[in-house]
Amino acid sequence: MSHDMPKGRRIYEGKAKVLFEGPEDGTLVQYFKDDTTAFNAGKHEIMSGKGILNLRISEFIFAELEKIGVPTHFIETISPRQQLIRAAEIIPLEVVMRNIAAGSLVKRLGLTEGDALPRPLVEFYYKDDALGDPLISEDHIAVFNLCSAEELAEIVTLAKKINQRMVEMFADVGIRLVDFKLEFGRVKSDDGTRIVLADEISPDSCRLWDIDSNEKMDKDRFRQNLGGMVDAYQQVAERLGLMSDIEEA
Ligand SMILES: Nc1ncnc2c1ncn2[C@@H]1O[C@H](COP(=O)(O)OP(=O)(O)OP(=O)(O)O)[C@@H](O)[C@H]1O
Ligand SMILES: [Mg+2]
User: Fold this and answer.
1) Which 3 state secondary structure label does DSSP give 183?
2) Atom of ligand 1 nearest to the CA of 15
3) Ligand 1: which residues within 6 Å by Cβ?
4) Is pLDDT above 70 for 172?
5) CA of 178 to the centre of ligand 1 (A)
């Protein structure tokens, strides 16, 4: 693992990734660790090989989204655990898109896990670990100026577009996209500031169920002590046709 550490200055260590200064101004290196946490880091384990799988799956999804016009922070993959990305000013929101009831939505509204929602649901959580990332409304975002109304409209449009594409992408390989979390950031360029999709999209941040058996193929395997988490992530990569790249790496 030590042979694959970025050379730049370490800027931020999160629960699953480390950010390093990139080779050029305005760039960062996102390093994917094997650390796996849940319940706001109340539960923590090292899951060998997870970082490599998440990088590859996230890279693939970001590339598919770029193809349909979603701007992202992704520049290039440097190594199996390192991605070169554009540095963004992260908007402190976790944007959650839901297609099927699961997780906190089930608890909050007394639903049954697996209930289909009448249409995709967009939720906003205030990104603050100390507060446990509380659910907030559009009006909280406006009152506390977490982003502008124009930015929020752009984020919601992008989140819905991303959901449509990802539902298709996973359905094509026999996986139900239950829900997922997105982060967006501001990137400055010559022609002003624009919103880009940032962070990662991986089985750490999505709920993915096998279409036939409803078997969980995501971080709920860890949260719920079901075992086989890395094997499940590998199965996701395999179905997306990404395992040959990973074995070569
Ligand atoms: N393009 C980007 N520019 C700047 N920061 C980014 C970018 N993409 C992701 N990040 C941030 O990098 C960090 C990635 O680390 P990680 O996912 O491990 O954090 P985390 O433990 O989930 O903590 P946090 O609560 O800060 O998200 C996150 O804080 C994320 O918001
Ligand atoms: Mg994170």
Assistant:
1) strand
2) 21
3) 12, 14-17, 19, 28, 73, 85-88, 90, 127, 129, 183, 185, 198-199
4) yes
5) 23
Domains of the chain: 2-88 (3.30.200.20), 89-228 (3.30.470.20)
How far is Cα 185 from Cα 74, in angstroms, rounded to an integer? 12
CA geometry: angle 73, 75, 76, nearest 5 deg: 135
Atom number, ligand 1, closest to the C-alpha of residue 73: 1
Spell 116-152 as b/e; 16+ CB within 10 A means b. Answer: eeeebeebbbbbeeeeebeebeeeebeeeebbeeebb
- The pTM of this model reads 0.97
pLDDT at 249 over 80: no
Please tell me the distance from the alpha carbon of residue 28 to that of residue 20, in angstroms, as a whole number.
6
Q: How far apart are CA 121 and CA 180, in angstroms?
A: 11
pLDDT the model gives residue 181? 98
